[in-house]
Amino acid sequence: RGSSGINAEYGYDEIIFTEPTSLMYPLLVSSKPQDPGLAQHHQNFEEIERKTFTAIIEARRQIKTEIAELSARIKNQKESYQLLKQEVKDLEQDQGNKT
Fold it and tell me: So what's the pLDDT on residue 74?
């Protein structure tokens, strides 16, 4: 009795290219990763660290600037409050003297 010609392998998938095109053949036989993102992943740690450090320094600078601006606004608001409070006190005294 003959074989049906169908073999099944379990555990992995395999594609066999019996006649790959001239464009496909170099891709099939090369052992280098084709995705440049994967290849650079292990090479750019210093660059990533430098960019992260620069971003942290810039963020700190922006936060300090915002804190300074908000502190100045709070100081101005407190001064305005004190001036208004004094005006109300003066007006109350003027009305008390008129009666």
Answer: 97
- Write down the H helix ranges in the chain: 24-29, 36-41, 45-98
Q: What is the pTM of this model?
A: 0.47
The pLDDT tens digits for 14-54 are 778 788 888 888 888 886 665 655 555 556 788 889 999 99
- How far is the C-alpha of 99 from the C-alpha of 95, rounded, in Å? 7
Q: Cα–Cα distances in Å, from 62 out to 59, 73, 77, 82, 84?
A: 5, 17, 22, 30, 33
CB 33 within 8 A of CB 42: no
Cβ partners under 8 Å of residue 24, min gap 6 = 17
Question: Cα 41 vs. chain centroid, distance in angstroms?
Answer: 18
